[in-house]
Specification:
Blueprint lengths: L2 E5 L4 H12 L3 E6 L6 H9 L4 E5 L5 H14 L5 E4 L19 H27 L18 E6 L15 H20 L7 E7 L2 E2 L16 E2 L1 H13 L9 E3 L8
Parallel strand pairs: 1-2, 1-4, 2-3, 4-5, 5-6, 6-9, 7-8
This protein binds NADP nicotinamide-adenine-dinucleotide phosphate.
Length: 259
């Protein structure tokens, strides 16, 4: 049934991906900063014996990423899907409303979790992804090509430069715009060889998680997705992803978002 790695799996959208994939019979490598306090992941492990491997990984630490990649290479051998779900609005939990809120520290911490870490995951996991067979999504349209694995970066619509009408949230918007650029770069580098990886950026909609909680009261009724709803939408995109989609940025409804 395939093997998937979810980075940022302790809660929110990442945790829901782990749950949905394990329920399908997929082997899930659930990466989180603090496995000892990851109670929801431990519950999932008990519900799906043998399917959920909890691995320690702080995405801002290259040593953690290297150790996790060595573990996955030795134990699981290949990956069909890698999804980066880690993300923060900013270290304070709120986006900046004006220039006076900006600090180097806010930029550095937000970029480390939202942008640099996810790209460093590609550095250390691309060979393991190339060994995968695209058991989850990643079908190819050219029958001469082998099936491909999928690399997903969880972006946000506010990272679209052309869609920016409200301003604010400097560090979050900039970190996601840079993540989109990284996704495009990865699609080129990991699309050159015989073994290819489909690389896409996804916007999950506004989802009921801790990240969005400070802004829930501004969301019109019906527009706040449950985690299950969001992951159902995003899995449909991943399931039908082909190499024709690589380098693209999709909303939860499957429509392409302009960069
Ligand atoms: N919710 C929304 O409405 C929404 C909208 C657009 C985009 N997104 C994006 O969707 C993704 C998931 O967000 P969410 O709503 O599920 O947020 P969330 O519930 O706040 O979860 C954030 C996740 O990121 C992890 N994380 C934070 N710093 C980390 C680090 N240094 N290393 C590893 N993991 C780290 C957290 O782990 P800990 O438990 O260890 O803190 C947690 O698992 C993010 O990339 C976010 O930008 C969300």
């Amino acid at each position: 049934m395939g093997t998937a790695l979810i980075q940022g799996a302790s809660r929110g959208i990442g945790l829901q991906f782990c749950s949905t994939l394990a329920a399908r019979g997929v082997t899930v490598i659930a990466c989180c900063r603090n496995p000892s306090s990851a109670h929801h992941l431990k519950d999932l492990q008990s519900q799906h014996p043998g399917l959920v491997d909890i691995v320690q990984l702080d995405v801002t630490k290259e040593t953690d990423i290297i150790e996790a990649s060595q573990h996955v290479k030795t134990t699981h051998k290949k990956l069909d899907l890698l999804l980066n779900a880690s993300g923060i609005l900013s270290p304070t939990g709120k986006g900046e409303t004006s220039l006076r809120d900006l600090t180097f520290q806010r930029f550095q911490e937000t970029f480390a979790v939202n942008t640099f870490g996810p790209v460093m995951m590609a550095k250390h996991f691309n060979q393991i992804l190339m060994a995968g067979g695209g058991m989850i999504g990643g079908k190819v349209t050219d029958p001469k090509q082998q099936h491909t694995s999928v690399f997903v970066n969880m972006s946000a619509r506010v990272g679209s430069i052309s869609d920016n009408r409200a301003g604010g949230w400097y560090s979050y918007r900039m970190s996601k715009a840079a993540l989109n650029m990284a996704t495009k770069n990865l699609s080129i580098e990991l699309g050159r060889g015989k073994k290819k990886v489909v690389c896409i950026a996804l916007h999950p909609g506004t989802v009921d998680t801790e990240l969005s909680r400070p802004y829930h009261r501004n969301v019109p009724p019906g527009n706040l997705f449950s985690r299950q709803q969001c992951v159902d939408y995003l899995m449909a995109i991943i399931d039908r992803a082909t190499f024709a989609d690589t380098g693209k940025y999709f909303g939860w409804d499957g429509a392409e978002i302009p960069f």
